[in-house]
Task: structure prediction
Amino acid sequence: MRINIGLDPTIAHLGPFVLSWYGLAIFVAVVVAVSLALRWARQRGVPAEWIQNVAVWGIVGGIVGARLFTLIDTFDYYVKNPMAIFALWQGGLAIYGAVLGGFVGGVLCCWRKGYPIGRIADLAAPAMITAQAIGRVGCVINGDAYGAPTSLPFALVYTNPHNTFAPLGVPTHATPIYEIVWDLIVLGILLKLRGRLRPDGALFATYLGLYSLGRFFISFFRENAPVLAGLNAAQVIALVVLGVTVTFLAMRGGLVRPAPATPASEGQSPGTGA
Result:
């Protein structure tokens, strides 16, 4: 089943501003991620102010990091089209740059304000992978993160001439959809492990490791230039992140199972001593 993507990436022009499907998806992703993190923070007794402050720093760091990674990865394109550097609504925000830049921004905020970094990171992990899945919906529409040409029956075919990324009329691997599926699988695992891993930061490390594992294999279906030993930049980063996170979890991580509930003894009310 081939899916034709003929939707114009631009929704509307509002004076000097451009409202795009990609930009809308990123906006929704950020709102959902922050809302989820705030909800989980309340459940864990973490002040909402902490999450709000870290979110601001993380969002700014994520945007800067995402754009820098894209500039490095597609340097030739932006040399020829320098004004496209500022056209964030068109796409071209590298997810690894967003994750690492957002992490650096969040860590700096925690460091400056004295927040527990690992605890905040664990709250952010499921929210971040949720945001990634939503953001990739924008990639499906605008052709960003498109896959290599394929003869498989399941493929994406971009037909709108305003698409600035994917080749027009060519069946390509549905790599954005592959990643959405993987992101949702990772989300399910993180939700299952939430509150059961120690030390603080272990859930975030698990998120990075699982995402990197999937991204490494999905990247084989994309046409990115190799940078080392036949691997593209995303795959090299994935291996580095996997190495770091697996080492961290092997040396410090552990599964903490919730203590089983014990029924109150007969004739005693819950909470009283034996």
Notes: Confidence is low (pLDDT under 50) at residues 262-274. The chain is about 55% helix and 10% strand. The chain has one domain: 2-254.
